[in-house]
Amino acid sequence: MSQQSNEANNSKITAELADFALAPVDFPRDVHAAGIRSFVNIVGCALGGLHHPVSDLAYEVNSEFVGAPVATLIGRGRLADVLSAAYLNCLAASAHAFDDTHLPTVLHPAAPVASALFALVDRQLAAAQTIAAPRAPISGQAFLEAFTLGIEIQCRLGVALLLPPAQGQIGWYASGVAGGVAAAAASARLLGLSAEQTRWALGIAANQASGFRQTHGSMCTSFTPAHAARCGLHSTLLAERGFTASDAALEGANGYFDVFAKRANPGAAVAGLSRTWHVLDNAFKPYPCGIVIHPVLDACLALVQSTRDRSFEATKVAAVKVAVNPLCLTLCDRPAPSSSQLAQVSVQHWTAAALIRGRAGLAEGSEECVHDTAVMALRAKVSAKSDPAIARDAGVVVIEMQNGERFEERVEHCIGSTQNPMTDAQLTEKFIHQATPVLGAGPGKALLEQCWSLHDSPSVAELLEGSVPD
Q: Of 204, 346, 377, 431, which has the fewest Cβ atoms less than 10 A away?
């Protein structure tokens, strides 16, 4: 742990971020579009992860502790208290590792922010029904502003902690460290807190930041951002009632930046506020696994397609050789994953599954696929090496057949990268694929249309009503 300079300590970063979270905003067109795309993606992921084992398990345990049932559980058609709803909706959205990724920092920013805000939408609606003075519903525009600013703040915290000249602590799980603070900031805006209350909310959330990478590949992978969503919302509700925190919780000595980085770059959190937008670097996944695996999947699926849609039978393959950026093996080198959770972060599993099945969707990340004998046999023939000359969004796959044939595919910029982002049409297809099994084709399409037109919605509560089965 380091001590920041007096200049950094006196820069009032907590206050600047609080003011930024509350200020009137007129998003540039590309920032507005990025916010909408993030929203469509994360609602789809919440539906897609609804019945993942981690979601069902957490729901069953949480049912012992719920308070007033006022908040929507997306896809379940049941209500929970606001803190539980924030936690459970975020858990589902993160369950398949299908959520968004801020490419420079590998943060997953949308789920904690959206889940906290959804709970506040229902809290506002419940309050309007129980008090004499009516309260206006939360509009889509107000929600979008808070949501986009929350993502932006989370990305800025990640940059300040992780990107050079900062020296990050790679052991911390960045989504857990930054997600709660961002959820608090967005919630404070939606609640209309004062600047002082918002500083307290950021400080309370920062005090609860946590999550470390040793748990990566377990159910904690999705628990960590879910806990951040709950902590961020709780922090804001406490601050609303006068619960205090340090006004320099982020930048002060032995505060957030000191603790969570070997040496942070606090100024990056506020540099170019309202001029430079890190949300534009937030990307979306075409495959439900660690994003560093995606170049390999693009290559594998291209190989299957180029060989007339054949799959590569394990008995006919001599070896599969994968070359990737070193970060891929740092995060996803698991040659023999024993569960679907570990398979989410196994480049060897996804290589084999994509080649055998010619797909890389939710089914290829299932327990059934992990224990499929053909997939297991080919997985054992996959060798992966790191090459620092290969970019994070690039990769090479070489297949050597027992008959001497050799196939090779190189990917320079995978789908979902900055240079090759998912299109709106691809995001739509991804949403429908996840929503239809839960809601049905018609209601799923209707909800998708509501999500794309969020900024025009007079009430986000109406959108939430459409996120549960009839």
A: 377
**Residue 194 and residue 242 in one domain:** yes
What is the number of other CB atoms lying within 10 angstroms of the CB of residue 293?
Answer: 31
Strand partners, 102: 107, 282
> Residue 309's pLDDT band (boundaries 50, 70, 90)?
low
- The tokens for 328 are 């891929």
Q: Exposed e or buried b for every residue in 254-264, given b needs 16+ CB within 10 A?
A: ebbbbbbbebb
Whether residue 212 sits in one domain with residue 103: yes
Instruction: Dig out the tokens for 283 from the structure.
Output: 């990307």
- Alpha carbon 137 to chain centroid, angstroms: 27
pLDDT tens per residue, range 208-266: 999 998 888 899 999 999 999 999 999 999 999 999 999 999 999 999 999 999 999 99
Q: In angstroms, how far is CA 363 from the centroid of its own chain?
A: 20
**Over the stretch 343-373, which tens digit does the pLDDT of each residue have?**
999 999 999 999 999 999 999 999 999 999 9
Residues 122, 68: one domain?
yes
DSSP structure string for 81-96: -HHHHHHHHHHHHHTT
What is the C-alpha to C-alpha distance for residues 460 and 145, in angstroms, rounded to an integer?
13
Residues 226 and 201 in one domain: yes
Handedness of CA 295, 297, 302, 307 (dihedral sign): positive
Tell me: do 217 and 118 sit in the same domain: yes
Query: What is d(CA 427, CA 435) in angstroms, rounded to the nearest whole number?
Result: 12
- What's the structural domain count of the chain? 2
Which helix (DSSP H) or strand (DSSP E) does residue 413 occupy?
none
CB 84 within 8 A of CB 65: yes
Q: What is the CATH number of the domain that holds 189?
A: 1.10.4100.10
Mark whether 39 and 139 lie in a shared domain: yes
Instruction: Specify the CATH number for the domain of residue 332.
Output: 3.30.1330.120
DSSP string, 326-347: HHHHHHH--SS-SSHHHHTT-H
Residue 51 lies in a domain: yes
* Within-domain flag for 431: no
Radius of gyration of the chain, Cα coordinates, nearest whole angstrom:
22
Q: What percentage of the chain has pLDDT greater than the value 90?
A: 87
Domain of 407, in residue numbers: 291-411
